[in-house]
Every structure is written in structure tokens, then in C-alpha cells.
Amino acid sequence: MSPNLAPILHFVERLCKQDTVACPLCGLSEKCPKTGFYKRYDPGTGRRIRIQRHLCRNPECPAVTFSVLPPPLLPLFGMTWTMLLLAMMLRPHFSVNALACLFECGRATIRRRLNWGARLAEWLLSSGAMREVPSWGLLCALISRAFFPARSHSHPINTPWPIPL
User: Fold this and answer.
1) What pLDDT, on the 0 to 100 scale, is given for residue 160?
2) What is the distance between the alpha carbons of residues 120 and 139, in angstroms, rounded to a whole number?
3) Which member of 23, 60, 109, 161 has the greatest number of CB atoms within 10 A?
4) Which string of b and e fits 89-111 if b means at least 16 CB within 10 Å?
């Protein structure tokens, strides 16, 4: 059973309109100068794009530099928000094989992405993140921490709600 995706769509749209850069570990959003970039593949355009790196000026923060992925890119999911939500909406009407052909990937890949999408939607709706997250960068950090705790930093993220694992 797929959750109602409309609130998630509105939440993502609101976050994408904000132009706030904040450190994902300490939340500092002031005086975070640009310190270079790296390139990452954008599945939406099929090209490599530049991801800006920023310097965290909080002397107590363990992050020296950080990057904030552009709003359509999800951390570690290999799919944009739009494509993931579209796949989840089409799932009741198409077979996994048809979706794999439509999204130009294998059946195992589309199954994995649909499972991640369902878990992500459930987490967004139940964790309080949609009400409380002030910036895209913090949302990316929380997603990474909630779904990939072994890959994320060992430093705590300060949030007003518990991060479900």
C-alpha cells in the first residue's frame, strides 16, 4: 500500500524554493563560504554537474567542509525525487518489468528503488521531519543518517525529534 504522496511533494517543493546553506552536522547557516566543488552524475540530465562545497566556521563542529546536493538529487538513492515519486505512483498500474523498461534500469534496481521510496515516504510522514526540517542540507543529512547509519558520520545531528533507525 503506497502512502499519500501529495504532502511529500509539497514538502519537497517548499524545501527546494529555499536558498539556505547550513552545515548538516551543527546547523550553522551563517558565513559558510564556498570552498570549491566536486562533480556528480545527475540522473535527470544524464550529465555531470558541479556540487558546491562550503566551509563550516563553527570551531566546535567536526565538519570542516560540507556540500549540499541540489534539490532534485537524493543522497545515496541514485534517483531524483521526481522520478522516485513517479515510479511509486505508477507501481500499482505497471509491472516491475514495465517500470524497469520505462526508467531504463534493471528489475532488481527498480524494485530496490521502490522499496527505498516506500521506506523514505513512511519515514518522512512519521518522523516529524516534514514539519521541522529547515533546510535541504539538513534533510539530506537526516536521510543519510536514518537509512545508512554505517555510512554517515558518527557525530550527532541536533534535531527536536528522534531520528528513527
Assistant:
1) 46
2) 11
3) 23
4) eebeeeeeeebbeebebeeeebe
